[in-house]
Design a protein that fits this description.
2 copies of one chain form a homodimer.
Chain A lengths: L1 H11 L4 H9 L1 E6 L4 E3 L7 E7 L1 E7 L5 E8 L3 E2 L2 H6 L6 E4 L3 E7 H10 L1 H27 L2 H11 L3 H4 L2 H8 L3 H13 L1
Antiparallel strand pairs in A: 1-8, 2-7, 3-6, 3-8, 4-5, 4-7
Chain A binds a DNA duplex through helix 9.
Amino acid sequence: MYEIFSAYLQSKAAFTPEEIEAIRAVSRIKKLRRGAGLLQEGEVWRYHCFVCSGLLRRYRIDEKGVEHIIQFSPENWWAGDRESLMSGQPAKFTIDAVEPTTVVLIINEDFNTLLKNIPTLNDVINLILQRSLNASQERIHAAISYTGEEKLQDFNNRFPQLANRVPQYMLASYLGLTPETLSRIRKQVAKK
Amino acid sequence: MYEIFSAYLQSKAAFTPEEIEAIRAVSRIKKLRRGAGLLQEGEVWRYHCFVCSGLLRRYRIDEKGVEHIIQFSPENWWAGDRESLMSGQPAKFTIDAVEPTTVVLIINEDFNTLLKNIPTLNDVINLILQRSLNASQERIHAAISYTGEEKLQDFNNRFPQLANRVPQYMLASYLGLTPETLSRIRKQVAKK
DNA sequence: CGATTCTTTGAAAACAGTCAATCTGTGTGG
DNA sequence: CCACACAGATTGACTGTTTTCAAAGAATCG
């Protein structure tokens, strides 16, 4: 499974075999079955986490018990709760597996050492960080600007196929709609 | 005006006088009057931009001519369009001044040189990047989870006083509401 | 002070949410 | 292999919220 991670890294930049090995040395593989949790709200998150296969979701549950999904992380994406990681405070989000999932975990201290010793890794992570920020801002734009139907189209454009892997009610949560409303939007769209 | 920027930097980390001077050497001050543009949609953005005083907004205009504000940048914040900066593609956003504003501009190439030569600056910028990402994700959560009234409260908690500096219709745009709806929400809240 | 910009209000229409019931598909155990 | 159970999706009727459009009322800048 670690090969998926190293292949990902190689695809992003030229790492030496020694660097790949140094990263492997502090990596830990974790397998999650469908529905299993990776982080519970209230726990402190201390890792960097790369998804080798499967699909994670990160979400919050409000006072009424309704889930609000902030992010999906399919294979070859990163996951985790940076806020808890940075602050050392209990996480406000929960992360669990939508599908059977395999992740690589690296403890934060080890990861920081890697970043210091491997400038290439630092650059890669930095680029990802910046891209994530861009993506987040696009999502903000979608959330405040688009109608329900436009949000659905936008999601399908950005993440082709992902809608097929995610239960409808989770997609609705991600888009900020109720499952019923999403169902009706889909019906509308189908008619055209 | 440059003193505001250097004071900001000093407040974030210990820079040597030489480093501060190196940063100053590539900095350019720009003053904007109320309503003046810093970036037009379609232009390519090539700077890093720090707001010394005043207030900027970044927004997009949809097909119907409606503005959607993605971000406010008051004094001591950063502004700009990272997406255009990174990709070299025309910006999808417009940035202009809500109040008379003074900014420090550093051309991207110069900024990258600074980052390479001044590790302290690199760390500071990196931290800001990560915080921005956290903040964006909180905003996504607010946008998909909260009612209009909750969005207003959340904004006031996060940015005390800012609501007083921004025209109501811009705040509405930022929150993803119409000005009329925001007006009515405020009326509701005032009654309590 | 005057013109312009911004905010508020009203009424009607469009839209999304709620609750409850039904339908569908999938996987499990008998 | 079937039947049942269960999670998820859809539908209907209703309620509540937000938008739209138009007009009137404040506030503010030059």
